[in-house]
Amino acid sequence: MQIARVVGDVVATRKDENLAGLKLLILQPLTPSGEAMGRTLIAVDSAGAGVGETVFFVRGKEASFPFYPVEAPVDAGIVGIIDHWDLG
Amino acid sequence: MLLAKIVGTVVATRKDPRLVSSKLLIARPMDPRGKPEGGYLVAVDTVDAGVGETVLIVSGSSARMASGLKDCPVDAAVVGIIDNVELSETS
How many Cβ contacts (< 8 angstroms) between chains A and B? Predict the structure, then answer.
């Protein structure tokens, strides 16, 4: 899993039927020090996240597991909202 | 998933039988501001997208979960047509 900041959202009216009702958010992956790192991506939200929050997300087919038994065609999904993190 | 702009179509007569009647599109990934990034890719269309539209592309094994692509040899599928992108001011 990776840490990211939610920087926006996208709206799609016409989409796969198994995406209906899912929230699509724009994520900017972060380094452990909180700086932006790499390209943005679109992820589905299963944790109730919103713009401005720091989250962790999972990549790959596992991103669809929160919606089981619906087989949502997603490859990135937010699975937790981060309250804070510490580096040793 | 990726944001991408559809820039073309692909026609292939000889192909895997499970790809017969699939529409293949050429997509250029882009960032939320519309700037192209990375290379082009070929994606199977499941939502009747067309050239010039901004779409949502799912890649990897998840692409097979798109409508009608079960057990198809694909790793990228167009699963949504983007109406609006909202980006926060601070990003």
Answer: 108
Task: Determine which helix (DSSP H) or strand (DSSP E) holds A64, and give its type and residue range.
Answer: none
Q: What is the pTM of this model?
A: 0.93
CA–CA min distance A88, chain B (Å): 27
The answer, for B16 touching chain A at a CB cutoff of 8 Å, is no
Interior/surface letters B17-27, b for 16+ CB within 10 angstroms, e for the rest? eeeeebebbbb
Q: What pLDDT was estimated at residue B1?
A: 97
d(CA B88, CA B91): 6
For the record, the structure tokens of A68 come out as: 């089981």
Beta bridge partners of B78: B45, B57
User: Tokens at residue B60, please?
Assistant: 């990897």
* Residue A86: both structure tokens together: 């510490």
Using CB atoms within 10 Å of the CB of residue A53, give its burial: 0 to 12 exposed, 13 to 18 middle, 19+ buried.
middle
Q: Which two tokens stand for residue B2?
A: 């990726």
Residues facing residue B36 across a β-bridge: B30
Distance from the first to the final alpha carbon of chain A = 19
Question: Could you identify the residue written with the tokens 């007569």?
Answer: B13
Distance of residue A84 Cα from the nearest chain B Cα, in angstroms: 20
Confidence of residue B26 (pLDDT cuts 50, 70, 90): very high
pLDDT over 80 at B44, yes or no: yes
